[in-house]
Automatic annotation (TrEMBL):
Domain (AMP-dependent synthetase/ligase) ranges: 16-362
Alphabetical list of SUPFAM superfamilies matching this protein: Acetyl-CoA synthetase-like (SSF56801)
Keywords carried by this UniProt record: Ligase
GO biological process, one term: secondary metabolite biosynthetic process
Entry superkingdom: Bacteria
Protein name according to UniProt: Acyl-CoA synthetase
Annotated AMP-binding enzyme C-terminal domain residues: 412-489
GO molecular function: acid-thiol ligase activity; ATP binding; CoA-ligase activity
Origin species: Paramagnetospirillum kuznetsovii
Length: 499
């Protein structure tokens, strides 16, 4: 078997080779053209000396090159590793040193970064930049017999976002790929020829799993965008390409609502909107569906799971709730002592078991052993389910805050704060005071022209009207920006360490 064949094979097998596989600006590729280009990349990587199961690092922007190189690496029996094009030199150096990858394909604009990172890591992989790709592919055949892989052979790596420190390489296998179509086909309603667009870049598990893997396996047309899509760029792509399904994150949906960009014919042509990556407030979900007329579905997945495991569906959704466990995933809540929680409205650690779970963290057997037990993965998320079976995130297990003997979910406080006019961003953390007692602190970013003392009073007044008193922060500290990883996730530990 081979994961690349699992992705492209269904369309090619039924004679849909001439159907569009992807659109990127003015560039298009059919399924047959994408397959041939993937073969050229796989052959070129082999000629470059990459050995079976070795990782190939891809520091490329979303486009035909990234998709073809990713599939080509898998097809040739290598491990595809897409990296964040906004990562810092130290993070790229970590990926170099951790993976020992013999080959990097990267954007020419990132050449200096790549060389600096290689020097920091004391490694010397072959580096091919985007303006050299044609030369790299020259002479490589567009025919390649897919490597015959064991189901448990490595197909791809994904580096975690590093919210708690050094990123870890999660190893996924060829057997995991086939699961990618289920949510896309069964719940998002994607049929062959439908266009699907993600504002999140393909190095994230969210679009990688549901667009490059699931979308192509369903015969869809991927709509790709070069560059980092802000609200204006996302609106332009949607207006031009007219996708049927759009995947994004709550922060961008909020900006699009604020800008009024979603009140257009193009947005009303989108049948299904998907939200993941962070909690989707109920009010934002309702307002979005009112403005666009489309269905908004939420879900949670992870780098380690590759695909969503809890999500809302067209037949069963509730604004403000993440959804219910999907048929291909088993989920459990456990207390800190390991006891299974079966009572509604009781928060606990979320454990997941599904076929697409990562098999291990590369070079980190200690962490692997701690979070993988008997096929179950401890996600690090805290969830609760209600009497109707809807699951809602309460935050990360290492982010939960105990104030005056009572547990507080940061996400609940942050959701309330983000609804206050004038607040652009907000994060709640627990910080010890001079007596060593934990006190709740809200870090916030004020919108332009807001006066912090006035905004602080507005925030505190609003939160006290909505939340129990022990959940209300004693003070608000304003920052120019919330510290985040290169993938956009909050680095709470930096706020706690900074006090």
């Amino acid at each position: 078997m081979n994961g690349a064949d699992d992705i492209l094979g269904p369309s090619l097998a039924v004679g849909r080779g001439d159907s569009l596989a992807l659109i990127c600006g003015e560039t298009t590729l059919t399924y047959s053209q994408l397959d041939r280009l993937a073969c050229r990349y796989g052959n070129a990587m082999t000629l470059a000396g990459v050995q079976r199961q070795q990782p190939v690092l891809l520091l490329l922007d979303d486009g035909p090159e990234l998709v073809a190189a990713y599939l080509g690496a898998m097809k040739a029996g290598f491990a595809a590793v897409a990296l964040n094009t906004r990562m810092a030199a130290k993070d790229l150096a970590h990926a170099f040193g951790d993976s020992c990858a013999p080959l990097l394909l990267a954007e020419s604009a990132l050449a200096d970064l790549a060389r600096e990172a290689a020097t920091m890591a004391h490694v010397s992989p072959r580096m091919v930049f985007s303006d050299e790709l044609e030369a790299f592919l020259a002479g490589s055949s567009d025919q390649l017999v897919s490597a015959d892989m064991d189901p448990e052979d490595t197909a791809l790596w994904m580096y975690t976002s590093g919210t708690t420190g050094q990123p870890k390489g999660a190893i996924h296998v060829h057997a995991s790929i086939a699961l990618g179509e289920r949510h896309v086909r069964e719940n998002l309603g994607v049929n062959p020829g439908d266009r699907i667009f993600s504002t999140s870049k393909l190095f994230f598990a969210y679009p990688l799993g549901h667009c490059l893997i699931g979308g192509l396996r369903c015969g869809a047309t991927l709509v790709l965008h070069r560059g980092w899509p802000d609200a204006a760029a996302a609106a332009q792509v949607i207006t031009t390409a007219r996708p049927k399904v759009v995947l994004s994150v709550p922060s961008l949906y909020r900006l699009l609502l604020k800008d009024g960009a979603c009140a257009t014919e193009a947005f009303r042509g989108v049948k299904t909107w998907v939200s993941a990556g962070e909690n989707l407030p109920a009010e934002l979900c309702r307002r979005w569906m009112e403005e666009t007329g489309g269905l908004m579905l939420e879900g949670i997945g992870a780098t380690e799971a590759l695909f969503l495991f809890i999500a809302s569906t067209p037949a069963d959704m509730k604004p403000g709730a993440c959804g219910k466990p999907l048929p291909w995933a088993e989920v459990r809540l456990r207390s800190p002592d390991g006891t299974e929680i079966t009572t509604p409205d009781t928060a606990g650690d979320l454990w997941v078991r599904m076929d697409s779970l990562f098999r291990r963290y590369h070079n980190r057997p200690d962490v692997t052993q701690r979070v993988l037990r008997d096929g179950w993965w401890k996600t690090g998320d805290v969830f609760a389910f209600d009497a109707d079976g809807y699951w809602t995130p309460q935050g990360r297990s290492d982010d939960m805050i105990k104030v005056s003997g009572q547990w507080v979910s940061p996400s609940e406080v942050e959701e309330a704060a983000l609804m206050v006019p004038g607040v652009a961003d907000a994060v709640a953390v627990g910080i010890p005071n001079e007596d060593g007692l934990i006190r709740l602190v809200l870090y916030a970013v004020a919108e332009v022209d807001e006066h912090p003392p006035i905004l602080e009073a507005r925030i505190i007044e609003s939160l006290r009207a909505k939340l129990a008193i022990f959940k209300c922060p004693r003070n608000v500290r304003f920052l120019d920006a919330i510290p985040r990883t290169a993938t956009g996730k909050v680095q709470r530990f930096k706020l706690r360490e900074g006090g």
